[in-house]
Design goal:
Number of helices: 23
Shape: globular
Oligomer: single chain
CATH class of one domain: Alpha Beta
Structural class: alpha+beta
Strand content: 15-25%
Helix content: 40-55%
């Protein structure tokens, strides 16, 4: 999502690329993480001194600046401790329960230590973590040498977010044995799936095998080496130049193909060695950044400390023309989680990465990827971004993989993400209502609420102006209804959001904003109603902030039918970016929550978001995506409703629309396949454990691939074109059918009115 953020001068409401401590990965800059000392010319001692000063100022400013003005006391210190420990040991496998007990004895003091600029506790925790990592590295080697019985029916407790730490060394060893076995089994399954994918092509079956260790020529470098079998040994099978999409499938199924020759044991050793090396090379800046952010996020998940380098990145992210992969990232479970794919960016065009995928390693060009687990997000961002046309390799855990063992790889070429590719777009589509009648409908897609504040043009590019122009175009083309697509729109410019909502009503309030002093009603500034016809709005769990303002206002007015996931993201707060010291940029800044949004009906969009009138279930509904899953999210609250009149003649009875939609989806094979995938993923996400039996895991992987392939191709051969089209974007297809229902209801209402007038 895009935070609605204001600069400390309070002049502009800006949509900045940031999510729960996130920075945009599609930004300008060099492509390598740097130690703070090396980057700034400071010694480690100077970095530490800067961090101590920043801590003192933050301890003073944070409670004063935050919306709720809560004292920085023992309660906040306890929250900050838990956040810091989970940031360091994200899956709760390294620290022992005795470590946590020891750290908690200091919990009542760390707030005072922060105010005094004392960072010793942060480094004490970090040093203990490094000690535990070294211990576990030795254990990993021991357990790999012992081997695993992959036919045993045992499980690994993969849901570690709230798990208790190991009580003693015996429990610790058993947890780690299962953890490594999970990765071992995951590797066997991934290689097995890669072999099956490669063997599926006739070219692969016909060509002779190559020695994977043989030197590569330019031609051979495009060929796939033989995949190892389940034992980890190279397979004695075919190997040939695959089709482009086959090569992509193999990369997705097995991670980096350069590692196919590695045994599962060596693959795991390599991964953990990279992990340890990255940690041993970490600097003071990394520890300070993580520790101070724990205190800001104790107040709410969108408040955040930023070192000087991260503040610079944050400013860069405001630019509307970006170079990188075009993705927004947040830090979760020690990895860089994909929160949003920027329309028109390399990642979105490639289609491999999905929201919820977690990046765990990054490589430049053809070099081996560097493990990035446990890295601060800003360092991962700097590794991902780079020069235009340069290549970057991302190793990631798919969002659907609960085991964390099925690593996959995607290679992208960094490109400039231009405003034009992120801008509002429209198209006209015809639908058949089932009775032989065609309806011409308009689809208006708005990826974000953009506004080029820094443009020197008299008429800078603004989303509100673009949407107005596109609506006029659609009216000239004679559309009977409009679908406003705000799915995955993370927000942006508040003035544009208010103006766009106003294009669909005559006048009235759009949103309410409350700071620590009062509540302000923000209204449509233009009395003109550009479009007054049938309207539906599409949303998803990734629709946030300004998207929620628009969809909520149109829903509260009774102006549109809202369609989509079970709820939107639920981000109803505003952040302000404040420097710690205007005279010393090296101290960094902090982003702090200073206001909340409320619907015109009175309820906040915070946590609850916007609940659609018609729900079309999605994969996002099975995942922990949304404000309610973020630690210490501010609660839902309510203010008095604004004065407005609900429109009574714009939408049909919702029960009728829901019933018709349900019948259509039940009769469509593309939706049945999709629903089966959603149900299967939901079952897996709700499970606390995952099987360590290789046969069970292979069976699950094969069934998932079969369903996934069916969804991508529109189902079995012989299905009609409508069902195949629904497979590409089923929510849009069904939303247009719902819009068609609304159009027909309007036509019937107009006919009835005409008859009534004639009768009079």
């Amino acid at each position: 999502m895009r935070d609605t953020t204001v600069r400390s001068n309070g002049i502009l409401w800006l949509g900045l690329l940031a999510v729960t401590g996130a920075l945009a990965a599609g930004v300008l800059g060099v492509a390598s993480p740097e130690k703070n000392g090396a980057a700034s010319g400071k010694t480690d001692a100077e970095v530490l001194a800067t961090g101590q000063k920043a801590a003192r100022i933050l301890g003073l400013m944070l409670p004063r600046a935050h919306l709720h003005h809560h004292d920085l006391d023992d309660t906040m210190a306890a929250r900050a401790l838990d956040l810091y420990l989970d940031a360091v040991d994200f899956d709760r496998t390294h620290f022992l329960a005795s470590d946590i007990d020891e750290f908690r004895r200091d919990a009542g003091n760390i707030d005072d230590m922060l105010k005094d600029g004392d960072l010793s506790f942060a480094f004490k925790v970090n040093d203990r973590f490094l000690e535990r990592v070294r211990n576990r590295m030795a254990f990993v080697e021991t357990v790999l040498k012992q081997g695993f019985n992959v036919k045993d029916r045992e499980v690994y407790p993969w849901k570690r977010k709230d798990a208790a730490r190991a009580a003693d060394e015996a429990a610790w060893d058993d947890l780690w044995r299962r953890k490594i076995k999970n990765e071992y089994v995951g590797r066997l399954v991934a290689v097995e799936m890669a072999k099956a994918t490669e063997a599926a092509t006739p070219a692969a079956k016909a060509a002779p095998a190559k020695d994977p260790k043989a030197p590569k020529t330019d031609k051979a470098s495009k060929d796939a080496p033989a995949a190892p079998d389940a034992s980890g040994k190279p397979a004695q099978g075919a190997d040939a130049k695959p089709e482009k999409n086959l090569e992509k499938d193999i990369l997705q199924a097995d991670g980096d193909r350069k590692d196919l020759h590695l045994t599962p044991e060596d693959f795991i050793r390599k991964r953990y060695k990279q992990f340890q090396t990255a940690l041993e090379d970490s600097d003071e800046d990394m520890v300070i950044d993580r520790f101070l952010s724990a205190f800001t996020q104790a107040y709410d998940p969108h408040s955040e400390y930023m070192t000087a380098s991260r503040t610079e990145d944050f400013d860069i992210s405001m630019r509307l023309s970006l170079v990188g992969i075009g993705a927004q990232l947040s830090s979760e479970d020690g990895a860089a989680k994909i929160e949003r794919l920027i329309p028109g960016g390399p990642a979105e065009r490639d289609g491999t990465l999905k929201v919820g995928d977690r990046i765990v390693a990054v490589g430049q060009g053809d070099t081996d990827p560097v493990e990035t687990l446990h890295w601060p997000l800003y360092k991962v961002v700097r590794l991902i971004r780079g020069a235009k046309d340069s290549k970057v390799t991302l190793v990631y855990w798919p969002a659907s993989d609960v085991s964390g063992a099925a690593e996959r790889t995607v290679r992208l070429v960094r490109q400039e993400v231009k405003l034009e590719e992120q801008a509002a777009k429209s198209k006209v589509q015809e639908i058949d209502d089932g009775d032989g009648r065609k309806h011409k409908l308009g689809v208006l897609t708005l990826p974000e609420f953009y506004s080029d504040f820094k443009s020197k043009s008299r008429e800078p590019r603004r989303s509100a102006a673009d949407v107005r122009r596109l609506l006029e175009d659609l009216k000239r083309e004679g559309v009977e209804g409009v679908a406003l697509d705000l799915r995955n729109n993370g927000g942006g410019s508040l003035p544009d959001a208010i103006e766009i909502a106003g294009l669909f009503i005559k006048s009235g309030p759009i949103v309410q904003a409350r700071d620590s002093r009062n509540v302000q009603v923000l209204s449509d500034p233009d009395p003109e109603q550009v479009y007054d016809g049938p309207l539906v709005v599409l949303v998803s769990r990734m629709s946030a902030s300004a998207s929620e303002i628009v969809s909520a206002a149109l829903q509260d007015f009774g102006r549109a039918v809202v369609i989509g996931d079970r709820k939107t993201h639920g981000k109803g707060t505003v952040q302000t970016l404040l420097p710690l010291d205007n005279r010393d940029e090296s101290l960094g800044s902090f982003k702090v929550t200073t206001a909340s949004f409320y619907r015109i009906a009175g309820g906040s969009t915070q946590v609850k978001g916007v609940a659609p009138d018609i729900v079309v279930p999605s994969f996002f509904d099975t995942m922990e995506i949304g404000e309610e899953f973020l630690p210490h999210a501010l609660p839902w609250t309510v203010v008095d409703p604004a004065f407005y009149a609900v429109l009574s003649d714009q939408i049909p009875p919702l029960d009728v629309l829901r019933e018709r939609s349900a019948k259509r989806r039940a009769a469509n094979s593309a939706f049945r396949i999709r629903d089966e995938l959603i149900a299967r993923l939901g079952t897996r996400m709700n499970s606390e454990t995952i099987s360590l039996n290789v046969d069970e895991r292979v069976a699950i992987a094969r069934a998932d691939k079969e369903l996934d392939d069916a969804q991508r191709t529109g189902g079995p051969a012989g299905k009609d074109s409508d069902e195949k089209e629904a497979a590409k974007d089923p929510v849009l297809v069904e939303s247009l059918q719902i819009l068609g229902d609304v159009v027909r209801w309007h036509e019937a209402a107009q006919t009835n009115q005409a008859v009534a007038r004639q009768g009079v």
